[in-house]
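Cross-check.
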Amino acid sequence: MRRFLLLYATQQGQAKAIAEEICEQAVVHGFSADLHCISESDKYDLKTETAPLVVVVSTTGTGDPPDTARKFVKEIQNQTLPVDFFAHLRYGLLGLGDSEYTYFCNGGKIIDKRLQELGARHFYDTGHADDCVGLELVVEPWIAGLWPALRKHFRSSRGQEEISGALPVASPASLRTDLVKSELLHIESQVELLRFDDSGGKDSEVLKQNAVNSNQSNVLIEDFESSLTRSEPPLSQASLNIPALPPEYLQVYLQESLGQEESQASVTSADPIFQVPISKAVQLTTNDAIKTTLLVELDISNTDFSYQPGDAFSVICPNSDSEVQSLLQRLQLEDKREHCVLLKIKADTKKKGAALPQHIPAGCSLQFIFTWCLEIRAIPKKAFLRALVDYTSDSAEKRRLQELCSKQGAADYSRFVRDACACLLDLLLAFPSCQPPLSLLLEHLPKLQPRPYSCASSSLFHPGKLHFVFNIVEFLSTATTEVLRKGVCTGWLALLVASVLQPNIHSSHEDSGKALAPKISISSRTTNSFHLPDDPSIPIIMVGPGTGIAPFIGFLQHREKLQEQHPDGNFGAMWLFFGCRHKDRDYLFRKELRHFLKHGILTHLKVSFSRDAPVGEEEAPAKYVQDNIQLHGQQVARILLQENGHIYVCGDAKNMAKDVHDALVEIISKEVGVEKLEAMKTLATLKEEKRYLQDIWS
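Predicted model, tokenized:
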């Protein structure tokens, strides 16, 4: 079989799942994939690799390669490597990202660009898949196109081998030209990927089925709208291309518990975990605010946990008790909730390189695993739906699950599964004849991820304490009936602090009483560059509407202490653009901001209220932070372009961060008198120089 090396760099398991799918499909197409995590550097060697390379890379944070790729990226970024270091290498790369973030697919782009700089060449165009609209829109056609690209590579490689010794080494200048061309061709390549004619008979399991079986009710489908459980023509009458069945690989044994104690310490983590008590919780918003915002203080004085303003950390959280209970009931496993789960790899599995899931600790109870280890709210992927088909007995339900995972049913999958935030429990309630075994769920449910939060304090200001701020997330799940759900972590934290919560919206700096809520587990996150400049004389602009203000409270507290310690020091201006809905309901840290302004720590405070009507005859004030930035465009441009200032943006990626970026483009264009494209290049340079920094989330 023709061999290729297949590497994946994953943060939450997406890239790994896609690489495994490629590995499984490879056999069908006459190839053998040598599959490894990119961190397993002892199992492959790119310096001597002669086979083609396929890489699947996700993106984490605000554009970083995943943690598993950190070492690999550091090694290839070594500036002493010659420009022909990987001249022998031919590769194809699939990047995963989310276009709601500025640095879309940047994890893949960093590796792609560096491989090119070191002489490697594509045998297949790079794909950039967007989680914002559905990874599968690019992933599926990219994989379909990989096989002809590999066949073409292997056909031409014999001839290439004969002349490879005579190939000239590319000059750095020509490499740069190639990179520019590659960047310009990127959008075209994405369009081409979407045009692939998946003459898929041989690329997927093809299911030829007539519409609804004759034993089903003879009601006119046109009388109903499509839903999670029901389709309408033409889909209900279409022949379907459905994915190949993922091979099962886990054998599960349930054993009566010996009553051993379980704790959050059993949860697996790449970083050290600290158990810390909650020492204070304050509600920052009024009860009639649209969103409820809480500030939580953690006591870290008895730990080695340290942070600086601008850092983020992770909270290890459980799934909702009621959802775990409902899921176990539906699976008819409620009476076995205390049983220990023992896992083995099936002896006869066809899954290549099958391994036990690392996020499921050995010997823990079923209840613990569903509560602390599995992301039961995860939106089921098409491969999961395909696996559920074979455990569904009702023919109409079976057909609908086939439609939802099929190529023809992509729009319905997006509408009724992805966009409706459907989870496994929703599917099992919607399809009552589906009775999957526990092993299938443990194979397909991803790891329950820790939730990241920005530090909202300075350890100089609050020694031994760590503050963070969050909205209690609430959203409507519309998968079956409308259900109001709370965020996994914020809903849990709100319940946890209920007994010690202070409703006082203008909290003081002093500690409250000694009542303590239970401890929570936290871990530090990879150091980022969202920090104050080393030189305190550099002016900074902070943009943080809503809970985006969190890291800037830490910045201001830190600066206040530095100014106390160095009364004659030279400190640059600090601008803050803050926004909320209503002045009297959700103006977070109002008292603290007045304090910083009064004492000259904060030099300019610009606040916008998006839902408050103008009072009397006054002109309509700025509605959003980007409007206020525009109003002060001259000063903003001066700080960034003449005074070497830094700008920090924290908050919502979907709307605010993009709107702020657009406002900055307009300001630079207007103040400097250049075209918008030139202004965009200026902002790109600021990002490169780490003077335009973002801490954003979707």
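The chain has three domains: 2-155, 250-444, 540-696. The mean pLDDT is 87. Passed to J.P. for a second look.
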